């Protein structure tokens, strides 16, 4: 089902950063590409500017490089984008306000689940009655026969 | 006329499913034998009716009957026959009909294989299954009728999109539906058990094959989608944490948990309440996934059908079944008592930990997926939750799972001694540690990802071998080998699936750690470095395809002066559809793929080129196929085949109660 219109948005948008956009300094370009991955293309559907070839994404990539070239840090670049477009441009949600709940969901749920299951495992349960000597003997008998059969 | 007949059988199927829901359920409540007996023939009849309906729609596609609106929109006379057929489910309406057909197929399979299940139980299972049929058939008929005619049929259809004509894509949806819909069966088993108020070992045994069947199809479906994305989308990504991908991943995680907890119910009569809950949740996530995909409520790259009316209807279906089942669960769960006692160190505890990790990880994916919706509605914040969140929140769960799996799979039931298990597992541990150190030593300083991934992956693979060996008991090597060949197939299935998880882990970790990417402008005749390889762009030529035009580049890949591969990446343009596509050229290798994509011609001369080395890429999907194959092995186990008929187990139940 998911593939129906997928090509419209992704397949043609497969080409990320173009060679003519790239910075000559490889370290700075690596920084820029890392930033591309976490800046969302707001004109696309849940895609980062790293993977979209929409015009908007291209402009955004150029802007990232322009800012980095001018000496901006990663946080500066992200701030410029957040100020202009809101936090929707961040692929990595912030830890501000209610988002704390999102980020703490995994550890909190895990601890809760571990606690509940620990309580469950430790909870007393009816213990099966031990075997009587006759039953024990019968069981040993069966096991010996099985082993013999197995090794034969 | 034929098309109207297809429409008619669809309506008949709805009526039959109404009967299948009401009569047997009431019969089981009142204890009326003949009323309950309606369930099985009704389930089979529903399958027959929907098969007819589906075949007629397929026929309309095959002969290109352009009086049918759906065919016009989604087919074209020039399409190859294979894609005319797969075009039937390449759209919302047709895929919903396939969904209903598979639902009916599972109902009929339960009716046929469940002959020996207790009468009231099978009547209830099929009644619940029928009610799901009512919901989806009415959804299909009233909001998404595939048989609508056009008054003025055009001469040709409009659906000739080149990207849809791909085998990986053509068979990805049916597998996914088999998975999604297969979970309806476990849901029906769970609700029926709640209605009966009784869950025992036999229940675990009945429900497990169906879970396994659904899960292995989901595995194949997800793997096909991921593989397609890798080779077709042109940049070698394999997972995007897109809402629609998550929609298929959540039921996969939950059904994997269910698979394991049902074993505990079957062997030890513990975890009954939890297993019932998982069975409800697994199908619940399938329903939520269907809603997410088809309502367009979450913006996704996979826009499918942004139709509010359909969305509301689907939300209603999801709400009714999940809510109804959970209410029933809260009323009845208290009556289910665990029987078996077990110690802290035991297989039971290990499987509980497995369930904790799988279920919590599924919920984390769920929360991340719907968080943008919650944030917007509750806090008025528009925000995105992208891969960085999922990578950070989800990965630890998989690491935890990989760490405990080999130990847990060897631990004996009831009461285990860690020392004895450690003796069995230490060779695997040692091998994994050695391999990780080797990888660390060759891997330069890049990251810890490669050695950690290697350690986990090989720990899983060797651990599953150790598990098999531990099953052979004691004695001479010959005796043990003989016992190994006599082990039940389910034991091999378990080992193969677990090893498959290891192979996938290795693939993901090494791909992410070691991939190399070069993006540059290449001139004809120019050679550039790609890792240890030298890539030369020898020439660029124009291509005239049957329905496209484009350019292709001859790229020569060498290593130390020796030819490795000649690759031919293409850039195509399809005039009819108006879409450009990139055809990546990939040289598949066991240890690394070389992946080359051709970009635009540059104004200043030369061509944009993107080249990657993708180490261990194939391992990701090979591992997934191994996981699914392990499921097939388990399903073919004699014990499962027998208990599908459940002749013995009903006696066992009688003996126990």
Structure description:
The complex is a heterodimer of chains A (152) and B (657). With 152 residues, chain A is mainly α. Chain A is built from 6 helices and no strands. The longest helix of chain A has 24 residues. Chain A is elongated, with a radius of gyration of 30 Å. Chain B is built from 22 helices and 10 strands. In chain B, strands 2, 3, 4, 5, 6 and 7 form a 6-stranded antiparallel beta sheet that branches. In chain B, strands 1-10-9-8 form a 4-stranded antiparallel beta sheet. Helices cover 65% and strands 11% of the residues of chain B. With 657 residues, chain B is of the alpha+beta class. Classes of the chains: A mainly alpha (152), B alpha+beta (657). At the A-B interface, helix 1 and helix 5 of A face helix 9, helix 10, helix 11, helix 14 and helix 15 of B.
Architecture blueprint of SSEs:
The complex is a heterodimer of chains A (152) and B (657).
Chain A: H1 6-9, H2 26-38, H3 55-69, H4 74-85, H5 99-122, H6 133-151
Helix pairs in contact in A: 2-3
Chain B: H1 2-30, H2 33-37, H3 39-62, H4 69-74, H5 81-86, H6 92-113, H7 119-143, H8 167-170, H9 172-196, H10 201-232, H11 243-268, H12 272-295, H13 308-332, H14 347-379, H15 387-410, H16 418-442, H17 449-470, H18 477-486, H19 489-514, E1 516-522, E2 527-530, E3 533-544, E4 549-559, E5 562-567, E6 570-574, E7 579-583, E8 585-587, E9 592-601, E10 607-615, H20 617-635, H21 638-645, H22 647-656
Antiparallel strand pairs in B: 1-10, 2-3, 3-4, 4-5, 4-6, 6-7, 8-9, 9-10
Helix pairs in contact in B: 1-3, 1-7, 3-6, 6-7, 6-9, 7-9, 7-13, 9-10, 9-11, 9-12, 10-11, 10-20, 11-12, 11-14, 12-13, 14-15, 15-17, 16-17, 17-19, 19-20
What can be said about this structure in brief?
The complex is a heterodimer of chains A (152) and B (657). Chain A contains six helices and no strands. With 152 residues, chain A is an all-alpha fold.
